[in-house]
Amino acid sequence: MGKSILLIPALLLVGAALAMAETRRVPADSATIQQAINDCNDGDEVIVEPGTYYEIINFSGKNIVVTSTDPNDPAIVASTIIDADSEGSAVTFENGESADAVLTGFTITGGFGTADTSIPEAGYLFWGAGVYCLNASPTITRNVIVNNNGPLTIEADQLLALSYGGAIATVTSSPTITHNVIKNNSAYAGAGIIVYLGDAQIRNNLIYDNSACVGGGVVLLYGGHLINNTIVGNDSSKTIDGQTGLAGNVYAASEPELGPCLVVNNIICNAKSGGGIYSVDTGQGLFAFNDVWNNSPGNYALQNPETGELTWDGPADKTGKDGNICEDPLFVNPQGKDYHLQLDSPCISAGDPAFIASPGETDIDGEARVFAWRVDMGADEYIGYVKPVANAGPDQHLEKPQLITLDGSGSFFYDPCGVMEFQWDQAAGPAVEFSDFGAMRPTFTPECEAEYRFELVVSDGLNFSKPDEVLIVVRNRPPLADAGPDQTMSSIPSIITLNGSGSYDPGGEALTYDWRQIAGPTVELSDENA
């Protein structure tokens, strides 16, 4: 009885808390979006009806949701417009807003940027023409951010205005930027997005046709996770004093003391100028499982630190390393800006095999983020019939020749109840005799120690997979000696015991011991082989 009584006030408190959250509609309850925000408390929601709202808005530190009537309906997003009319940043977060501060379902346009007052001698700097985040971590999702143009003005050799972040700028912030279409924005650097410090999560966005001097698509400076985005056709055609632009699609700089950049599972292609990616990495960042293709004048840029001269690809080329590829992603209609993947796209199931989607995570269309064997590259996850994917199993290391089983059971078939055909081929090593080259798990016994490589191709009766390779190493590895910890005595003891019990053989074979003195006054061991 006592427990039931104690639950009643708790339930009443929850009900009271829920009742406090309010919904304000624009223009029914408030004439402007900013007026509605001003009247809100944390947890409230502002719902904006379709229309064009000529204003700039500031979340003012409030963790509220500002949304159109349906962020999942492209027609609603297209007709619910925040137009800054070149008055400043269209949307600003600058007072510690958290992930509970949500901007979703708008077309954001007409932004100019916010002057940086933190550096008086650099008053010409402007940040975030479309959206500006300073010391904040909001959620920016399912918007179209278009035609925001940061200033780039020089008169009489004097720099008057220089903009960073045409669509979005994040400064010492950690926002979540996801499921947005970011197009036709301009700035000096980062016409699509610029990240300066912080841990911005940039996922599942479509970023195209943006133009800058540096980093037409995305600039990451000492932070930021750029994961599963499609970054296409951006350029670095904006110039100052005729200088050549750099990094048409992506610029990424990592420093151990400032922060690393992660660039994973993206499609980075068709840069009109400035190349695909320019990176400055001290070894702290990660660039893996990206498709970097057909960027002009090259995919990867390398700059001579002494002369400033740029060279393309060559030593900078990451193709074939860490899962990076260089192939036509086979978009449905790139001329028509349809960047969905076709069935034959090499980006399908080509992302990081260790990638695990968070609960409920989707691609840019709201469909399952991982559909087949592993995540696709880019913002779009191909849904539908998928060609089979071979998985030849993990590499194996054996200490001596013995019966070995290869395992292709991890291969992906769109219809697991349909046709599943396996074909194993030996690619390297002394020839072996398989129990069955067409089995899912064939066996063989090698005759000698060596390295053996095998390829697996699978078929569903309609299409064949790409080959997958497995390495089998048969070689006795040497045992590892462990003579025990160092010992220090304050006086001469009557006996000292050495301990080699930490030694071991990787193959589990029995060990023999051979102790030898290498320094110090000669001593007599009780048993050199104990």
Folded structure, characterized:
By secondary structure, the chain is mostly beta strands. The protein contains three helices and 41 strands. The strands form seven sheets. A ten-stranded parallel β-sheet has the order 1-2-5-8-13-18-21-24-27-30. The chain has a ten-stranded mixed β-sheet with strand order 4-7-12-17-20-23-26-29-32-33. It has a nine-stranded parallel β-sheet with strand order 3-6-9-14-19-22-25-28-31. The longest helix is centred in the first third of the chain and has 19 residues. It is globular, with a radius of gyration of 30 Å.
List the helices and strands and how they pair.
Elements: H1 2-20, E1 23-26, H2 33-38, E2 45-48, E3 51-54, E4 57-58, E5 65-68, H3 74-79, E6 80-83, E7 91-93, E8 102-104, E9 107-109, E10 114-115, E11 125-127, E12 131-134, E13 139-141, E14 144-146, E15 152-155, E16 158-164, E17 168-171, E18 176-178, E19 181-183, E20 193-196, E21 201-203, E22 206-208, E23 218-221, E24 225-227, E25 230-232, E26 250-253, E27 262-264, E28 267-269, E29 277-280, E30 286-288, E31 291-293, E32 300-303, E33 310-312, E34 331-333, E35 338-341, E36 396-398, E37 404-405, E38 421-428, E39 443-444, E40 450-459, E41 468-474
Parallel strand pairs: 1-2, 2-5, 3-6, 4-7, 5-8, 6-9, 7-12, 8-13, 9-14, 11-16, 12-17, 13-18, 14-19, 17-20, 18-21, 19-22, 20-23, 21-24, 22-25, 23-26, 24-27, 25-28, 26-29, 27-30, 28-31, 29-32, 36-41
Antiparallel strand pairs: 10-11, 15-16, 32-33, 34-35, 37-39, 38-40, 40-41
